[in-house]
Amino acid sequence: MRILIVGASGLLGSELVRQSVSAGYEVTATYLTRPREVPGVDWLPLDVRRREDAVRLIGTLQPDLIVNAAYRNKDWTTTADGAAHVAIAASMAGGRLVHVSSDAVFSGTAMDYDEECVPDPVSPYGAAKAAAEVAVKAVAPGAVITRTSLIIGAGGSAHEELVHSLATGHGRGVLFTDDVRCPVHVSDLAAALLELGRSQHHGIHHVAGADAVSRYELGRLIARRDGLDVGRLPYGRRADTDLPGPLDVRLNCAMTQRRLGTRLRGAREFLT
User: Fold this and answer.
1) How far is it, in rounded angstroms, from Cα 208 to Cα 185?
2) One domain, residues 172 and 265
3) Which range of residues forms the domain containing residue 109?
4) How confident is the model at residue 69 (pLDDT cuts 50, 70, 90)?
């Protein structure tokens, strides 16, 4: 199988590359600023903000499967327009598309969200991700749209880096006790995305961890795993700040998990 991983130099993209190579796929990976060195993988530059570039690249490669993991937190053009450009290119080339979305599309008002819930974002990033979902569904109705949560790895994620900086006294900020998500391990997420890509399913799927934990509890779990002083982690309430975004968002993955052979572990399991 020929697979194209868009946005492959990040934490999730790198794991998708690793698992795809392991599975024996013919892998092409794209990057915006920094390619990685992976034997057997072709790395090509791609700025998804340029529709003509996405159409040209995907049209030339003719991949069987495209996984779009490209985003930029504060860049609407990359996150929303870029997703539409990849979907247009995939539709024109006839390749199957798996698009990675986020729990940020929800406000947290309902707390528990299954795949039937309608997005109601309260942050610019959430709005961009919700717009991307609309574009992908309209342009590539056969695509899989996967909403996920905080992605954790073996030290390479943003949250893990924050915990290390706070526990060692090199960082500033606090871990919120009232900001709840369902963290997922990057290897579980990548395996689920590839499995959904090989399936006949389409539409919205939720791929997150089995445990709902606060960012503070998650930080404590990471600190314990890595031998850091848990007592040095500062904590507070997000509700006491003016930061945009939802507080408590729990992705209900029951429907998706029934379709998957990949088991989506909870943070209390994969961080122990």
Assistant:
1) 8
2) yes
3) 2-149+184-206
4) very high
Residue 244 confidence (pLDDT): 81
Same domain, 85 and 164: no
For 19-35, how does the pLDDT look when each residue is reduced to its tens digit (9 = 90+)?
Answer: 999 999 999 999 998 88
Number of structural domains (the chain) is 2
Number of H helices, E strands in the chain: 10, 15
Specify whether 258 is located in the same domain as 168: yes
Distances (CA, A) of 160 to 125, 130, 221: 21, 26, 10
Return the CATH number at 61: 3.40.50.720
Residues ≥6 apart with Cβ < 8 Å to 41: 17, 21, 27, 28, 29
Q: Which residue has the tokens 């389409």?
A: 202
pTM equals 0.96
Q: Is the pLDDT of residue 163 over 90?
A: yes
DSSP 103: G
